[in-house]
């Protein structure tokens, strides 16, 4: 706070170097103790730790290592399997554990295990960098240290030396260039360039492998968010949980027509040869860099994972991870059946949001907890809004659009909305009522007092439940009851009916919120109708701008506003200004400047130019400036300026309850599962870009009694 | 008889062809596509899906071809055993079907056997003890059995089993056996998971078949040849089982096809609730997300199953009752 | 429960005659008593059928007067009554309900209700409540009973605090009529097509029979699901209702058409039809004056037995999320809300609409049986 000039990036970079030298010292000279010293910091016995957060400076390498007794003795010794400087689990709450046992997980998927992306979110080992402390910090992952030039247009990443794939083959920068050259550049397997590979002006970076462990990315303009974005997602695999980044090219080349023989023409299609072979989650032969590798896969039954003996992470005491031998992930095609299994105790660990387990289910799980040997753990969702509602800023009907664009109209809706009722019913009085912001855990709100104030002023801007004020605002803009039927009409006297187009499969909490909102709006004289729409068509229809209201989403998105700014700034069609978002998307493409004489909703794709001095243009200007701003503090300032527009011209999206808890159910015998009190910010479960529980390293979970968990 | 069999089989083939054409057309008529559903899902997770990527996916999957072109591709593959690629399940449709069809057939046939095994004796008892207390109880149970929505019954049975029975529910196996080699213990574990859905699937059909059996037998018992047999002094049990029941079974044989259809529908819904990997579950899911190839192929497979059922019942009937050979 | 079984199998009790066209005593006259009063007499003898008829009539009456009978607006949410149990009744110079207070524990994530019967809230009769339109026409706000404060919850409340009693009787408006209307459409279709098929014979018969076979060769639920998926998205509740009706009847007519065909073929070979034919009566005239009236009672009986299947189908489609959908109120929508583990374990009253479904279907079956026994005593 008092040292705003020391950016997070440079601080971390410095510390990584220091740690590196310390580890080097440990390896070369002094006696065996540093690792043990380190482990002495944490609680050593069983029992729940009360330690909070994770070390931001990498811990020194322990020097001596232990491995699981089940590891094949014919493999090289553990010291040789690990890299020079392994990743030492930095979480303060972890305690050294016991090897062995099996973990049973459920994965909810109505269309089989291959599509169960959620269980990939347990393993962070493919990510070049990692989020720490619920996104407050960025620490080393595969990349040990990194640096950039002054204007952040050239980045160099130093990978750990001696990293190995789960088949024992060395990991090199070649594995990254394979992905970059053969898939991103060649546009195979529907892979497209990730944001971190684009500069602030949108041009692609140039990837250079300086040597086997050094990667350089060169941009034509500042790309200040590169490191932040490389911590996002668990990465790896086939690009379902973020960009791929690394592929085991030594294994996969045989399935690529440039290298292999007899590769079929459709090798790169969806579900085709490459996709099935490159998916570590379904192909037992595919090497991984995470703590586990696939043992067997069956699309209807699920996945069995077994230990990766080359995993490059250790506990502070030198135990090579993972502790648990095997993870059995079972597909459950019906959420209710899954809930019963959790109650019964046949599931050892459940990440609620992946299995449709919400606060409503806590009672039932608690009732059977003693029998099932489970415990309910609540982590903060980090949601900025809870269930949201927003109107289409680019609705085709001219008068209606004018009303929707009138800030007072949206402010009136916000004031008419009884958030406390939703908080009571859906969120059991947890969380905090909010106008609707981005995640309260975001760095821009945590960094200093200005940030904290930016958060509270946005959160509280139009949060008050005040129907009288709502009515007064509506009167001011001419939305009055002109024909005396108790419902308000448009200024022209036309009937005003808002339509809340929602997907038919919306979950219970969204439906409850929708019903409450409809009732609240009726109380101030606005008619709103809920219109369920088939999920498979929703996105297409929203793109055309024909839908009026959107409901079943939440805003969370990121430990940093700018890594995922789509809610803050309309950049694509899926959010509150679909046509203007599409306009931004088409800038710099060959579509730009065409079809100007066509009705915006008739263009392909439908798109619309923002008003020159309107809020969206202002947001774009600020955002464009932030993309090439290398100074972190100045970027925060730009974000705060954008928030001011959201307050003066917003709310563009209307939230309900921020930061309610999400449910995790764990067996009491399973240790090293952090409690909310252990987490730096209480958790940040919702955004997939901050991958929970992968950020807490489930590889270090262990059974207190491994013998009791062998099936 | 041979002519009848040949004609019947020819009709069956034609029917399957027509079903495939109509089914494919209707499925394609629905708006949206599996890709839209997928993209929405990815976006909801926070993935950035660019237009470029969408376009690539659409091209690979042939989303924008006219339906008849897609039908041609698919039907051509169907004959050679290549059913295309499932977008929603990320596996070849053939793998998907073969891995699920066994369980579906087992459940359907199991349900038919159970339904008949229960319905015939109870129906006979009911018809021969008309208006007695047990008959009235059976009647009430029958009516309620038909009246309970399957999904609700399934969920209620499952919840009760967890709460009071401590029985494992959901899926086919316990954790212990799920990925183990086949063994007697694993088979037993599977039966332990299957009996509950089987009972739920069967309830409706059993209740209905019992009613049919009861009514038929009662009618037959009133006919003259039964009176004659009785008058001749044939033992009552012999009259009922040898003469009456055999004739009362005709309509039951005729309904084989419709019973099968009902069981397949029931299987689909019950499998969803019990989280069983059956074709029914995959079919309904693929219809909802519009995974055309999976949905159309499964519809055709189930239709083939039904057509076979109908052919069997027709042939059986023709064999029992020569008059039927000239009809339809 | 299993939909197809009912529709196509309903008449199978006389299946032996339908396939082969055996004539069933077409026009017997017993003494001077007319056919109709004879049927009525036979129907009255079946006590269960009569009781069922009475129950069903009451249910339809409740559906017609749903607004008047409902103390609360079925769509009105009130989060202070989320999953509140049915009101506790007491006496205070008349029937009265106890007060309930909601208590939420944000630590243990639970909602509990404290019931206090010290100051009961008395029921008011023929009192003013929310506004509605009687028969969809007359705006009024009179209700059979209301309470001056709080919420009277005869069946308890759902997850949004909506009154399940009001919702159940409003749901009957959709569910009880969707079955009836669907079957009426199916009956008309089935009768016309079945008659043509049976009377014309030849090529027309073959084509119709093949089409029926094709429709019957697709399992019912997936077929409905396919058609429901084609349904346009932006339908109003009423439009959706009619489309659902059409979808349900599109499958249901096939079984009926087969039955009718069998009957018609039977009658067509009867002497009096041959006589009419030789007197140069037109085909249309023969069908309308001789064949249909004779088959009518049989058609009615078979149709009755098809109603339960359509009601069940409506609930099944809602469960799959492709039938009627919230905010529409139907029994299917209510049961979809109930098909959750937490409901079954903690809020059993949310299942009450399920009881209504079972009751209605059982009554329809008994009634159908009674009617069939009355019109077709020999089958």
Automatic annotation (TrEMBL), chain A:
Coiled-coil segments: none
Domain Solute-binding protein family: 138-548
Basic and acidic residues composition bias: residue spans: 600-610
KW Metal-binding (keyword) present: no
Any single biological process term in GO: peptide transport
PANTHER family named in the record: OLIGOPEPTIDE ABC TRANSPORTER, PERIPLASMIC OLIGOPEPTIDE-BINDING PROTEIN, PERIPLASMIC BINDING COMPONENT OF ABC TRANSPORTER
Protein name in the entry: ABC transporter substrate-binding protein
Automatic annotation (TrEMBL), chain B:
Membrane-related topology note: Multi-pass membrane protein
InterPro entries, per database record: BPD_transp_1_N, MetI-like, MetI-like_sf
Signal keyword on record: no
ABC transmembrane type-1 domain mapped to chain residues: 101-312
Domain of life: Bacteria
Subcellular location: Cell membrane
GO cellular component: plasma membrane
Keywords: Cell membrane, Membrane, Transmembrane, Transmembrane helix, Transport
TM helices/strands, residue ranges: 9-27, 101-125, 137-162, 190-209, 252-276, 296-320
Gene3D superfamilies membership: MetI-like
Family indicated by similarity: Belongs to the binding-protein-dependent transport system permease family.
Protein name: ABC transporter permease
TrEMBL record, chain C:
Localization per record: Cell membrane; Membrane
Entry-linked PROSITE patterns: ABC_TM1
Gene3D superfamilies named in the record: MetI-like
Source species of the chain: Desertihabitans brevis
SUPFAM superfamilies in the record: MetI-like
Transmembrane segments: 48-69, 174-199, 211-231, 237-256, 291-311, 317-335, 347-367
Keywords assigned by UniProt, alphabetized: Membrane, Transmembrane, Transmembrane helix, Transport
GO CC annotations, alphabetized: plasma membrane
Family, similarity comment: Belongs to the binding-protein-dependent transport system permease family.
Protein name: ABC transporter permease
């Amino acid at each position: 706070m008092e040292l705003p000039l020391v950016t997070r990036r440079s601080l971390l970079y410095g510390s990584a170097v220091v740690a590196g030298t310390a580890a080097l010292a440990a390896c070369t000279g002094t006696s065996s103790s540093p690792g043990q010293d380190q482990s002495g910091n944490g609680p050593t016995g069983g029992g729940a730790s009360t330690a909070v957060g994770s070390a931001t400076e990498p811990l020194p390498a322990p020097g001596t290592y232990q491995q699981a007794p089940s590891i094949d003795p014919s493999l090289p010794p553990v010291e040789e399997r690990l890299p020079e400087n392994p990743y030492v689990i930095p979480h303060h709450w972890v305690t050294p554990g016991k090897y062995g046992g099996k973990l049973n997980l459920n994965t909810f998927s109505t269309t089989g295990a291959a599509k169960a992306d959620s269980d990939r979110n347990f393993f962070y080992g493919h990510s070049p960098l990692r989020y720490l402390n619920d996104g407050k910090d960025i620490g080393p992952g595969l990349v040990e240290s990194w640096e950039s030039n002054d204007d952040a247009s050239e980045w160099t990443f130093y990978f750990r030396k001696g990293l190995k794939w789960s088949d024992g083959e060395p990991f090199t920068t070649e594995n990254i260039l394979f992905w970059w050259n053969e898939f991103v550049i060649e546009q195979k397997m529907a892979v497209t360039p990730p944001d971190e590979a684009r500069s602030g002006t949108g041009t692609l970076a140039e990837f250079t492998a300086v040597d086997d462990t050094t990667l350089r990315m060169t941009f034509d303009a500042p790309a200040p968010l590169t490191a932040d974005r490389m911590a996002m997602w668990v990465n790896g695999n086939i690009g379902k949980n973020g960009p791929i980044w690394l592929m085991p090219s030594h294994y996969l080349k045989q399935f690529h027509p440039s290298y292999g023989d007899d590769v079929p023409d459709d090798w790169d299609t969806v579900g085709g040869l490459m996709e099935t072979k490159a998916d570590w989650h379904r192909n037992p032969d595919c090497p991984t860099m995470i703590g586990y590798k696939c043992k067997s896969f069956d699309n209807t039954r699920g996945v069995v994972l077994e230990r990766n003996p080359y995993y490059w992470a250790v506990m502070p005491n030198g135990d090579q991870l993972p502790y648990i031998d095997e993870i059995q992930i079972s597909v459950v095609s019906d959420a209710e059946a899954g809930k019963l299994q959790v109650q019964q105790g046949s599931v050892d660990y459940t990440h609620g949001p992946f299995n449709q387990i919400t606060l409503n289910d806590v009672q039932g799980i608690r009732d059977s907890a003693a029998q099932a040997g489970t415990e309910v753990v609540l982590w903060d969702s980090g949601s900025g809004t809870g269930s949201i509602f927003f109107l289409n800023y680019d609705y085709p009907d001219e008068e209606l659009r004018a009303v929707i664009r009138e800030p007072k109209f949206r402010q009136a809706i916000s004031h008419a909305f009884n958030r406390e009722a939703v908080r009571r019913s859906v969120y059991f009085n947890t969380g905090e009522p909010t106008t609707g912001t981005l995640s309260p855990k975001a760095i821009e709100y945590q960094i200093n007092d200005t940030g904290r104030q930016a958060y509270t002023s946005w959160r509280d801007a139009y949060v008050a439940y005040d129907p009288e004020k709502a009515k007064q605002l509506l009167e001011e803009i001419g939305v009055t009851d002109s024909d005396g039927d108790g419902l308000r009409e448009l200024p022209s006297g036309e009937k005003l009916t808002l339509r809340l187009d929602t997907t038919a499969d919306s979950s219970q909490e969204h439906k409850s919120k929708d019903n409450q909102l409809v009732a609240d709006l009726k109380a101030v004289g606005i008619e709103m109708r809920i219109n369920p729409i088939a999920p498979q068509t929703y996105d297409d229809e929203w793109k055309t701008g024909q839908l009026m209201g959107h409901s079943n989403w939440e805003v969370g998105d990121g430990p940093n506003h700018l890594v995922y700014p789509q809610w803050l700034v309309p950049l694509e069609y899926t959010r509150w200004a679909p046509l203007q978002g599409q306009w931004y998307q088409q800038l710099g493409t060959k579509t730009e400047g065409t079809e100007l004489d066509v009705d915006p909703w008739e263009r392909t794709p439908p798109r619309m130019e923002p008003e020159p001095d309107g809020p969206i243009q202002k947001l774009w200007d600020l955002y464009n400036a932030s993309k090439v701003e290398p100074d972190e503090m100045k970027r925060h300032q730009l974000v705060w300026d954008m928030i001011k527009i959201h307050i003066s011209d917003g709310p563009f999206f209307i939230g309900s309850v921020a930061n309610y808890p999400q449910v995790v159910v764990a067996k009491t015998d399973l240790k090293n599962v952090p409690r909310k009190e252990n987490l730096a910010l209480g958790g940040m479960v919702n955004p997939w870009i901050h991958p929970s529980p992968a950020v807490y390293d489930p590889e270090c979970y262990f059974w207190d009694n491994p013998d009791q968990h062998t099936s | 008889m041979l002519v009848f069999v040949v004609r019947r089989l020819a009709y069956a083939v034609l029917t399957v062809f027509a079903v495939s054409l109509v089914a494919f057309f209707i499925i394609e008529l629905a708006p949206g596509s599996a890709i839209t559903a997928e993209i929405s899902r990815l976006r909801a997770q926070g993935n950035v899906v660019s237009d470029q990527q969408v376009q690539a996916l659409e091209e690979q999957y042939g989303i924008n071809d006219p339906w008849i072109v897609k039908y041609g591709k698919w039907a051509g593959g169907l004959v050679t055993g290549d059913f295309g690629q499932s977008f929603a399940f990320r596996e070849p449709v053939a793998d998907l079907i073969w891995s699920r069809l066994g369980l579906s057939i087992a459940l359907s046939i199991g349900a038919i056997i159970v339904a008949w095994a229960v319905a015939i004796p109870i129906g006979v008892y009911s018809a021969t003890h008309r208006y007695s207390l047990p008959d009235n109880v059976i009647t009430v149970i029958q009516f309620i059995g038909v009246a309970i929505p399957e999904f609700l019954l399934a969920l209620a049975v499952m919840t009760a089993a967890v709460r009071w029975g401590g029985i494992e529910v959901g899926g086919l196996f316990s954790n212990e056996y799920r990925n183990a080699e086949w063994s007697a213990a694993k088979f037993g574990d599977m039966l332990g998971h299957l009996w509950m859905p089987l009972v739920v699937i069967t309830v409706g059909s059993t209740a209905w078949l019992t009613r049919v059996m009861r009514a038929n037998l009662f009618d037959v018992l009133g006919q003259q040849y039964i009176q004659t047999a009785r008058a001749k002094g044939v033992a009552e049990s012999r009259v009922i089982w040898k003469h009456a029941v055999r004739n009362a079974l005709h309509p039951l044989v005729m309904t084989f096809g419709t019973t099968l259809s009902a069981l397949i529908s029931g299987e689909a819904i019950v499998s969803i609730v019990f989280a069983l990997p059956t074709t029914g579950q995959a079919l309904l899911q693929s219809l909802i997300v519009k995974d055309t190839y999976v949905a159309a192929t499964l519809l055709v497979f189930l239709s083939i199953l039904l057509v076979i059922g109908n052919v069997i019942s027709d042939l059986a009937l023709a064999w029992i009752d020569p008059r039927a050979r000239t009809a339809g | 429960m299993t939909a197809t079984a009912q529709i196509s199998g309903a008449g199978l009790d006389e299946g032996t005659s339908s396939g082969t066209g055996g004539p069933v005593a077409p026009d017997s006259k017993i003494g001077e008593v007319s056919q109709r009063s004879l049927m009525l007499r036979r129907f009255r003898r079946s006590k269960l059928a009569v009781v069922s008829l009475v129950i069903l009539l009451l249910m339809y009456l409740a559906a017609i007067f749903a607004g008047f009978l409902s103390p609360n607006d079925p769509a009105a949410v009130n989060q202070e009554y989320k999953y509140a149990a049915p009101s506790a009744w007491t006496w205070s110079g008349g029937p009265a309900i106890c007060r309930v207070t909601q208590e939420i524990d944000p630590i243990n994530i639970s909602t509990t209700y404290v019931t206090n019967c010290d100051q009961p809230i008395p029921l008011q009769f023929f009192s003013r409540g929310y506004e509605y339109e009687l028969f969809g026409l007359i705006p009024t706000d009179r209700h059979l009973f209301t309470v001056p404060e709080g919420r009277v919850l005869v069946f308890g409340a759902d997850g949004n605090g909506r009154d399940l009693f009001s919702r159940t009787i409003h749901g009957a408006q959709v569910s009880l009529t969707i079955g009836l209307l669907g079957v009426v459409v199916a009956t008309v279709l089935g009768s016309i097509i079945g008659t043509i098929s049976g009377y014309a014979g030849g090529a027309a018969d073959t084509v119709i029979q093949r089409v029926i076979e094709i429709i019957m060769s697709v399992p019912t639920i997936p077929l409905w699901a396919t058609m429901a998926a084609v349904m346009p998205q932006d339908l109003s509740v009423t439009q959706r209702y009619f489309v659902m009706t059409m979808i349900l009847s599109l499958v249901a007519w096939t079984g009926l058409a087969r039955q009718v065909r069998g009957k018609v073929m039977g009658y067509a070979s009867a002497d009096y039809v041959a006589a009419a034919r030789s007197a140069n009566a037109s085909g249309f005239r023969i069908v309308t004056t001789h064949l249909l009236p004779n088959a009518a009672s049989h058609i009615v009986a078979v149709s009755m037995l098809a109603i339960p299947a359509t009601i069940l189908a409506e609930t099944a489609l809602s469960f799959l999320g492709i039938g009627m959908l919230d905010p529409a109120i139907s029994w299917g929508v209510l049961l979809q809300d109930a098909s959750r583990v937490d409901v079954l374990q903690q809020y059993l009253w949310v299942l009450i609409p399920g009881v209504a479904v079972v009751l209605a279907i059982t009554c329809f079956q008994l009634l159908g049986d009674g009617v069939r026994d009355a019109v077709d005593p020999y089958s």
